[in-house]
Design goal:
Length: 372
């Protein structure tokens, strides 16, 4: 069996629906250590802070706390291809914006990001997304192959959407929420030094919205703020490589080109999927494998059958290297961000919203006339 065909059984309809990894984690301090989940802004009825879902069953109240979201995990995994060991697998696309240079692997919305949309790649990306809508993913794979691996939505233009092939999420179970308190004490008494009055000082102390408090000129206590959680039910990372979704990719309705494309994207996906996970997520959240529970790596079949799987990372990399050679990695380049394109993009969006608003008003007026 050649290196290129060794994983072809994953690309047939008789193959597994997905590869699944399940890892049990714990804080570096130990299973009962405190960890700090991600915090989220308030909105849509959510008060902000930790994302904890609580529910009840016959055993009592339970909860699940989101430690690292699927989007956050993708943003940690994708820059892997910027490392020297993996650079040969993907084109190096960099957007230069003033003094800043941003690799497409660091752009939050990947090929659909405004930075790319308002660059010299605008037309080429638009054509590639239109090709996706027509059933041809090859042009996009030439420019932004990781957009096929981690998913992309051209929501501001063609509306082309590709699902994530590789997804990973970290959750904690049955958590106890903690709070913490702190106080900032300025090194000198600025009121005593006539920077401001004693009256202004008294009004500002304890008011963290005060400009004097925000700028660090007065005592500023913070009580009852987020203090992390203790996960009594453990912490788990669940990762999936959707092979069924890989098999939906096509290249210009050509069977051979489609096979070459699928092998390439599968190779990138396997490299990502088998790579070493990041231990440091944020301050107060450094996680390692829990040694008392085994790591699971299985092939999941459509009929529910689970078979053990073992794909070492170096094997995945060797396969991806050969698949990339056969596909022909796209051209690396540095392109310019163009402010005029961005201004037109913003104006076009504003005009579109205004037009929609006028249309709704017109429809409402018509409806009212018909009712009368």
């Amino acid at each position: 069996m050649s290196e290129l065909s060794k994983f072809d059984h994953y690309l047939t309809d008789a193959g597994p629906a997905a590869l699944v990894i399940r890892e049990h984690l714990m804080p570096v301090e130990g299973a009962d250590g405190v960890l700090f989940p991600a915090t989220f802004a308030a909105g849509d009825g959510f008060p902000g802070g930790y994302n904890i879902n609580t529910f009840a069953d016959e055993k009592g109240s339970k909860n699940v706390c989101l430690i690292d979201s699927v989007g956050s995990q993708a943003n940690r995994l994708e820059p892997l291809f910027m490392q020297a060991k993996y650079q040969h697998l993907v084109p190096r696309i960099v957007v230069k914006a003033g003094e800043h240079e941003v690799n497409i692997l660091e752009a939050g919305h990947r090929a659909g990001d405004a930075l790319l949309r308002c660059s010299q790649l605008q037309q080429q990306l638009q054509d590639a997304f239109k090709a996706v809508l027509a059933g041809d993913a090859e042009p996009l794979a030439r420019i932004a192959p990781t957009s096929l691996v981690f998913g992309v939505w051209d929501s501001r233009n063609t509306q082309a959407k590709l699902p994530r092939l590789v997804s990973s999420t970290i959750r904690a179970f049955d958590v106890r929420r903690l709070t913490r308190g702190a106080v900032y004490i300025p090194p000198v008494d600025y009121a005593e030094m006539d920077v401001f009055s004693e009256e202004e000082k008294a009004k500002a102390e304890g008011n963290n919205k005060s400009p004097l408090a925000q700028r660090g000129f007065v005592h500023n206590p913070a009580s009852g703020s987020h203090g992390g959680v203790i996960a009594d039910g453990g912490i788990r990372r669940d990762a999936t490589l959707g092979l069924a979704a890989v098999r939906l990719l096509h290249a210009d309705r050509d069977e051979q080109k489609t096979l070459v494309l699928r092998r390439y994207i599968l190779g990138l996906s396997l490299v990502t999927f088998t790579s070493k996970t990041e231990n440091y997520l944020r301050q107060g959240c450094m996680l390692v494998l829990a040694t008392d529970q085994p790591r699971e790596f299985v092939e999941m079949y459509p009929d529910g059958k689970r078979l053990p799987c073992k794909i070492p990372h170096d094997v995945a990399l060797a396969y991806a290297t050969e698949a990339a050679k056969a596909f022909g990695v796209g051209e690396s380049r540095t392109v310019m961000f163009e402010k005029d394109r961005a201004r037109r993009d913003v104006k076009a969006d504003g005009d579109k919203k205004a037009k929609t608003k006028r249309s709704k008003k017109s429809d409402a007026a018509t409806d009212e006339t018909e009712v009368d």
